[in-house]
Amino acid sequence: MKKDLEYLTCYGVRTHNLKNINLKIPLKKWISITGVSGSGKSSFAFDTIYSESQRRFLETLGTYERQFLQGLPQGEFDDIENIPAAIALKQSNKTGDPRSVIATASDVAEPLRTLFISLMEPSCTTCGSPVKMSKAEELTQFLSDPDKKKSNENYLISVPFVIMNKKVAQDLLVEGYSRILIDKNIVIIEDFLSNLKNHVFPLNIEIVLDRISSALEITEIENRVETIWSQVKFSPKFSFINLNKLDKSNVISQFSKNYHVQPFCNKCQSQTNIIQSKDLDWQSVLGACKACNGLGNIPVLDENKIIPNQKLSLISGAIKPWTSDTFSWMQEELLRACKKRGVKIQDPYESLSKETKEWIWKGEHSNNKKQKNDFVSIHEFFDVLEQEKYKSTSRILLAKYRKYILCPECEGARIGKSGKNAICFGKTYYNIFQSEIKETLDWLIKLKKEKKFEKLIDSIPEIYNEALKKISLLNKLGLGSAQLFRRCKTLSGGEYQRVLLTRVIGNGLTDALYVLDEPSIGLGKNEIPTLISCIQELRDLGNTIIMVEHDKDLISASDEIFEFGPGGGNEGGNLLPIINKTPASFKTKFNIENNQVTKKEIKNERIFNSDESIYLKNFNALNCNSVNLEILLKKLNVLTGPSGAGKSTIIHFGLESALEKLNSHNLTSNNTPDYDSKIGTWENIITPKDFFSGTDLISVEQKALHRTSSSVPATILGLMDLLRKNFASTKEAKSLGFNLSDFSFNGSGGCETCNGKGIIQEDLFFLGEVEKTCPECNGTRYRNDVLQVKWLGKNIYEWLSTSLNECKIKLGKLPGFGKPIALCCQLGLGHIPLGMPTTSMSGGEAQRLRICAALSKSSKKIFCILDEPTRGLSEKDIGDLLESLIQLCTEGHTFVIVEHHELFQNQAHHLIKIGPGSGAQGGKIVERLLSIAK
Asked: How far is CA 825 from the centre of its chain?
C-alpha cells in the first residue's frame, strides 16, 4: 500500500480518443508525454488529469459556490487515485489586458518596488533630489549635552508661521498658544492682538512651542521633545523647528539652529513630500501617469491609415474612411466645399498646399473660434465617433484609424512625475523596467556588491533574494532580451508559459502537480539546457511535472517517457512501448544521414536577379538596423537564431509589411514606423515584374487564424457549403421543407440554447470563464429535427465529427471535396475532424490549415510566411510537413519560415541566421547558407 502512494494511478481512461488506458505515474518525478498530433496527449494530461484534479478541488468548496459548477467538462475514466493539486501552464496566451506585463505576470514587480524604495535615499517628489530630515534624537542629544547641563542654558523652541489676517491671529490664542516671536522679539499674543493696527498682513512670525532648560533630567527633555516633534510632524501648518538660545536676561541671542521635522528639499528650498511606494505603482490611481492612466502610450489619429495612398486625389477616394457607402455623403460634402474654395479635387492629395490639408483636417477657423463648416472635417468626424464610443461600430472605426504613440507626459514610464524622479544606484525606477532583463539582472548583482547598501540588503534578504531569483529565471529561460514592461499580449504562447513558470518556481510551491504544454516553443537549441535546469529545479522542490512535449532534448532529460499513438484521431489513443528511451514518433525519414543537405555560405548582399528573388533594402525596426534581406522565390527560406534576435521583426515588420504596402498602395518605401501595426521603415523593396498578378501573399502567425468556436476546418476550407447543398438536396430534407440555412449551425439550423456553439460559457468570477456542454443539443450544435436528415448514411453532425483521413476515402472523389481534403492529409492534418473548433487546435495545426485553404481556393502560386509551423508536431509529423513543403516549392510556391527546428535548418534551400545574440546584440544577418544539389 505504501508503494501505491508513490504513484498517481489511472484506470480505464477513455477521454476523447483514449482507449481504456491504465497508467501508473511516479510522483515527484518529471514525466514526458509525447506522440504524433492527435494521438491523445492533451486529452490525457489536460482533459483528464488536470480536469479531475480541478474538479476535486472544487468539491471542497461550499454549497453556494458549487451550485455554479454543475456540468463542468470532465474526463472519462474508471478511477484516478492519489492525484495532487494541479496547476496547468498552457500555451494559450489569453491575456489582453494592456496593463499586464512580464513584471506583473511573473510577480517580480512587487519585490522590485519594495527593494527600490527601501534602498533609495528619501527624495523630493518634485525634483528627485535627496531631502533633509532631522530626528527627535538629534534635538534631545543637543539639549542633554553634559557641558550645556553644567552651564544651565535655556532655549526657546519655535516654528515659523505666516499670519494672513486678523482671524488667523485670533485662532492662535484659541488653539492655546501664548507667545510668538516677531523679529526675534518675544511678544505675548494678547498684546499682539491689542495692537493689530500697527502690523501689516501677511506677517511672518514664529510660534513659541516650549522653553527648555538643559539642566532638566534627560527623561524630562526626551518627553518634551517627543511631544513637540509629534505636534510639528503631524501638523499641515508647520515644517521645521527653530532652536533659539536665551541669554541670562531672557533675550534671544544670535545662536539659532534648524531641525527639519518634515521633508525639506535644498534644491527646491521648500517643504516637500517623499517619494513613496505608491508613487512607483503604475497599476494604482495614485502612482499611474494621469495622461495615459499607466499604459505608457496614448491613441492618436494616424494620417497614414486615414490617407494610406497620398498619390490618390480627393475625388478618387484619398480619404479612406469616407469611401464606404455609410460615409460617402461626407466625401460628397467635402468635394462640394472644395469646388467653392477652388481646391483642385483631381490633383493628388500629396500635391495640395499645407493650408488646404489643414482645412480638410480641421475645417474653417476664424479668430480661434470654430465656424460652421460646409462639410465635416476629418477631426470632427473622429470627434463624433469618440462621443459615440458606446457603439461597437464606432469603437471598431476608431481602432482601425488610430495608432498608439509614446505618452508625451511620462515618455513610456507609465508612472507619474513623482515616480519618474525616483533614483537608486544610478538608475531611475522606470529604467529598470524599460531596460533588457539581463541589464536589470546585472544591476541587481552589482547592487549587492556595493558597500553602502550592504546593511540595508542584509535587513531585507527575502525581498532581495526573491527579486534576484525571478529576474535570473527570466534571463535563463530565454527572456533576457525582453523588457519587464513588455506587454504579455505580445508574447508567444511559449514565452508566456515560461513567464508563468518563473512565477511558480519563484514562489516555491511544493507537493503540487504541474502540467506543462510544450514549454520549449520559441527556444533555440542552445537555450534548451537552461529550461531543463529550471524544470529540474521545480521537480526538486518536491513537485510532479507532467509535460506534453516533442523536443528530443527536453524529453530525453525527463525521468519517464510515455508515448501515445500510433496515429492521430481514431488511430491513436493507445499507450506505446518505449524502446531504449526513444519514442517511435522520433523517427523520420530525414533522420537518415544520406538525407543531409550540403550547403555553401554566400555573401549577405543581393546575388540573384529580380526574377528569382525579392529584395528588401535598409530595413529598420526595434532591434534591427539597416538590414538587407533577400528571399529566393520557389524555394524554402528558413530564418533561425536565438529567441529575441529579431527574426519575427524582420519578417512581419519588414518583408510582410513592405509587400502589403507595395500590393495595396504601390509604395516601394516607408519612412514612418508604426510598431503597433507591425510596420517598420525601409528604403526599397524590389519584386519581379507583375509579381502580385500571379501570386497570393499569405502570412500565417500563431494568432493569425480567427480562433472562434464557430470556425471549423469545414468552413475554412469551403467544404461547409458543399455539405449543406448535398444535405438540402436530399428527399428527406425537401419533404421537411429544409433549405441551406437549416444545415448551418450558425444559421436557423443551430441549437437555440447555445446558438450553434455546442457549448455554453459561464463566468464564475473567481474561476474565470468555464465551458459546459450544451444540455439541449449535447454538443452537436444542431436542432434535433435537423439531425434526422442523413446523406451517405450520416447526419450532418456525424460528418462534422469525421476525420479528414476518413473523409478522403468517402468524399475524396466527389466534386469540390478532393483537393482541399487531400492537401490537409498531405500536410499532416488527416486526424482532425471536419467540425473541430480552431480554438482546440495547436498553433502549427492552425497555420497548416490556413495554407491548405489558400492552396485549395486559388489557382495562383502562393508566397507564404510561416511562424514556427512545427508547434505541436512530433518528429514524424515534422518530417511529413517538411516533405510536403519541399514538394510545394517544386510546384512553384515560395515559403519563408521562422523556425528553430534542426530538420528545417538542415533541409532549407536558403538558410538565414539572425543574431548573433538577442535584443540589442541581435538584429543582424550573421550568415546565409545556400543548399547545393547533389
From this structure: 34
